[in-house]
From TrEMBL:
<dbReference type="InterPro" id="IPR050855">
    <property type="entry name" value="NDM-1-like"/>
</dbReference>
<dbReference type="InterPro" id="IPR001279">
    <property type="entry name" value="Metallo-B-lactamas"/>
</dbReference>
<dbReference type="InterPro" id="IPR036866">
    <property type="entry name" value="RibonucZ/Hydroxyglut_hydro"/>
</dbReference>
<dbReference type="Pfam" id="PF00753">
    <property type="entry name" value="Lactamase_B"/>
</dbReference>
<feature type="domain" description="Metallo-beta-lactamase">
    <location>
        <begin position="20"/>
        <end position="219"/>
    </location>
</feature>
<protein>
    <submittedName>
        <fullName>Metallo-beta-lactamase superfamily protein</fullName>
    </submittedName>
</protein>
Amino acid sequence: MLNKLSDTIYYLSNQDDRERPTLGLVSGEQYSLIIDSGNSPRHAKDFLLEIENLNVPPVKYVVITHAHWDHFLGMNEFDATVIVNRQTNEIMKEWQCLSYDDHSLQKYVTANQMNAMCMEIIQTDIPNRDSFKLKSPDVIFENTLTIDLGNKICILERIKSTHTDDSTIIYIPDEKVIFLGDCAYGTTTNSLFHYKQSLLLPMIKDIQKYDAEMFLLGHESICDLNEMDIYWEELTTASQVVRSTSLENAIESFKVETKRDPNDNELFFIKAFVNDQMIQSL
Ligand SMILES: [Zn+2]
């Protein structure tokens, strides 16, 4: 079921057991725009069926927030203009060359080009995958792009991110709603989960310049301003105490500076920043 955020914005909640991210729908007077195309044709079809039940203008645009498979493998299902930033386009080119039969999938997983969960979802949720080829995006932008859906402006911006280097966010000014994709999350490199520490403050700045009250996140669905502020605060405090690859030193600094123990989230973030220090020191 779609969740209604306002008269013109709906979203399909993330579904973690099937690696399905949050999908968004924004409607103007003339057109509708989709945010992320789903992790598979089946996910996309489920979303399109829900949209059919709404009385909204036709879907003219699909914006893909970044080039992680769970956000774009459903894109062939949309008869719409697919929009990505330049770097997302570069990464997606690799996926356009892949074959999706069992033998090829197993080869990609063995070579660490694809994770096992991705293979599993492809096997269950892409019908006719022996002949499946991912389409190319239609519009590629550099830094920002503004789209008018008919008395409804959407601002796309490629921002700095702790998750990937190709993160696009979508801001709808007259609703004070922003779709963040996965940009505010960490990432895994060489099996180490980390937040790119050098990009944390630039990212928060990039996001906070928009006057948003509701935030849609790829694997959380919705957060209000207060929840987002707490998230930024915990991340920032954790980052400030991590200055080396020593977890002990970071926790000690945390206690000295805040005169308390870190909570579970802060401890999780501190570990992720320590991991980032390790990756940077390699
Ligand atoms: Zn992602």
